[in-house]
Amino acid sequence: MQVAINLPNEFVVLQSIKEIEHDMRLSYALWLFKNAKVTLSKAAELAAMDIYTFMAECKKNEVPVMNMTKEELLEELSSMGAL
């Protein structure tokens, strides 16, 4: 599916069309992931990145990758015998 939007010329000249497309895909992927609409792997796929690069983008944009509190993580690790 293709989505088209109109952008004022003054903003389009700041980047190439390819850069704008990349930034928009990344922004949308981050939004979808942050709002639990898609998984990490699906968001990375939408952003045309591997999972590790997308995770780095999440960190840069302050989007949590794990939806777990410190206590929940410690409990999970403890139940697995990892602690």
Which tags fit this structure?
83 residues, 5 helices, 59% helix, elongated
Write down how many β-strands occur, each being a DSSP E stretch of 2 or more residues. Answer: 0
Largest β-sheet summary: none
Q: What string, H for helix and E for strand, traces the elements in order?
A: HHHHH
Q: SS-based structural class?
A: mainly alpha
Which spans have pLDDT < 50 for at least 5 consecutive residues? none
Number of domains: 1
Broad shape: elongated
In DSSP terms (H or I, runs of 4 or more residues), the helix count works out at 5
Helix content: 55-70%
Proportion of β residues?
Answer: under 5%
Mean pLDDT: 89
Distance between the termini: 47 Å
Rounded to the nearest angstrom, the radius of gyration is 17 Å
